[in-house]
Amino acid sequence: MDTKLDDIFKSDRYKTRNALNSEDLCTDLEVSSLLAKTSVPYSHRRVANNFVLLRKICSFQVVQPRITKTEENLLSKYFFATLENTTISKMNREIVQMKDWATSTDDKLRNDSFSILEIRVKELKFILSNNYTLNSNEMYKGYKALDAYLTSITKYYS
């Protein structure tokens, strides 16, 4: 009787783990590059150019600050998690949403989209400057999708 219960709980645990790992496939990074190829708003191009330029010059050796509580509140307003807790596929969906919002006729939504992108870049700088989190498996790999998106923008739109 006990072995049947253990088998039931094991299978649920493994299903959950496999579902989480399927969200973070590295093949989804190609989707991020393709998102950068199709109709990128000017605000995204400007942020990407600044990010890539600073990355070439500084390479983020200095530890960057974390995001503030007000920035976290803006993310949670639109049901976005922090970049550390975001998978690659979820980040790709967020990028598509931000691209749509950046071309919206609603000024508040357009400004919030730009602010969210700047927050994401700030989070990305913090993650890239902190080697501990990159070397450990304590976070999802959504930051790689954002990094691929930003670097691909500068390749396609120079």
- Number of helical regions: 8
Structural class of the helix and strand makeup? mainly alpha
How large is the radius of gyration? 18 Å
- Describe the main β-sheet briefly: none
- N-C termini distance: 65 Å
Strand proportion, as a percent range, falls in under 5%
Order of helical and strand elements: HHHHHHHH
Q: Level of helix content? A: over 70%
Report the count of strand segments: 0
Unreliably modeled segments: none
Query: What is the residue-mean pLDDT, rounded to a whole number?
Result: 82
Shape: globular
Characterization of this structure:
The protein has 158 residues and is mainly alpha-helical. It contains 8 helices and no strands. Helix 2 runs parallel beside helix 8 (142-156). The longest helix is centred in the C-terminal third of the chain and has 23 residues, at 107-129. It is globular and about 40 Å long. The termini are far apart. The mean pLDDT is 82.
